[in-house]
Write a sequence for this structure.
């Protein structure tokens, strides 16, 4: 397998959706090709960082408004189910 | 999902609060909001790149959750359920703003299938950056990086890798073919990897050695140009 082909199958590999027969070829390519191994690892890191990311500066004024709105909607719902 | 990854469904930490909220307990509902509001806000900001729109989406999402909580059958986790509601709300807003299906640009994608930008900056950063820098700085780096992607790539990345929609679900949500979902996702992942590697990669260990990635393509098709075009 060449690096070019590895690039085309990168998504399937990272997502665990690669054909098992091709997966062996893919992994033996990675064993011999450090740059490709680094690309795979750093793609995985990239996805993980975005998946895990949670903190973002949510404006305080919006948070207060949101909770106020939800409290009112909740009361309305209880009164008129 | 591949069978290998099949595992018993993780216990949903929110389940006790969902049960209480279903029985009319507002403080339990508010706990759920407290737990998820920041994540949803950031998700909406990344999708929409606009504070006002992100606020609208977060508020509409929680109102919708409030109104439809009794229909939530808990087959997925609460977090997954509300993220789906938020992504549907955000996509609806995007369609409304454009007054046109989001997929309109699909026909104009040039060689979407053909050209894949090749990794240019290859350097190790297998360590976890969140251990090296403050969380806030990390988030700012991530937000700036995703901001540079074209919207069509950003949307696919968010829906697939953050919301964890399947390829067919993502295609359906955006009105594009599965093939285009795949290729846009690959481009988005490669572009983000490129940007983050420039930030987190160890420059002193950057790999310049001749690499097959570069052989079949001239500099014109390198990720460097793609990276530059995102920065402009």
């Amino acid at each position: 397998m060449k690096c070019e082909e590895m690039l085309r199958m990168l998504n399937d590999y990272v997502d665990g959706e690669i054909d098992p027969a091709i997966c062996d070829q893919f992994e033996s390519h990675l064993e011999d090709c450090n740059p490709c191994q680094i690309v795979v690892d750093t793609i995985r890191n990239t996805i993980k960082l975005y998946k895990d990311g949670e903190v973002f500066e949510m404006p305080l004024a919006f948070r207060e408004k949101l909770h106020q709105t939800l409290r009112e909607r909740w009361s309305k719902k209880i009164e008129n189910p | 999902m591949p069978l290998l990854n099949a595992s018993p469904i993780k216990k949903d930490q929110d389940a006790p609060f969902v049960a209480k909220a279903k029985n009319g307990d507002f403080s339990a509902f508010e706990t759920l909001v407290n737990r998820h509001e920041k994540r949803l806000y950031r998700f909406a900001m990344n999708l929409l790149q606009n504070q006002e729109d992100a606020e609208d989406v977060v508020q509409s999402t929680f109102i919708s959750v409030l109104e439809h909580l009794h229909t939530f059958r808990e087959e997925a986790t609460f977090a997954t359920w509300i993220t789906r509601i938020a992504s549907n709300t955000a996509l609806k807003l995007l369609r409304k703003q454009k007054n046109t299906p989001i997929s309109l640009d699909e026909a104009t994608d040039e060689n979407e299938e053909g050209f894949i930008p090749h990794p240019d900056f290859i350097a190790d950063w297998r360590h976890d950056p969140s251990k090296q820098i403050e969380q806030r700085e990390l988030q700012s780096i991530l937000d700036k990086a995703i901001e540079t992607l074209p919207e069509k790539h950003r949307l696919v990345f968010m829906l697939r890798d953050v919301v964890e929609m399947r390829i067919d679900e993502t295609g359906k949500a955006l009105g594009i073919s599965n093939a285009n979902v795949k290729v846009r996702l690959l481009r988005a992942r490669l572009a983000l990897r490129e940007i983050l590697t420039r930030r987190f990669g160890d420059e002193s260990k950057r790999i310049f050695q001749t690499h097959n990635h570069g052989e079949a393509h001239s500099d014109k098709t390198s990720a460097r140009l793609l990276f530059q075009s995102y920065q402009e």
Remarks:
- Residues 60-79 of chain A form the longest helix (20 residues).
- The interface with chain B takes residues 2-4, 7-8, 10-11, 14-17, 33-35, 38-39, 41-43, 45-47, 49-59, 62-63, 65-67, 69-71, 73-74, 77-78 of chain A (CB under 8 Å).
- The mean pLDDT of chain A is 88.
- DSSP finds five helices and no strands in chain A.
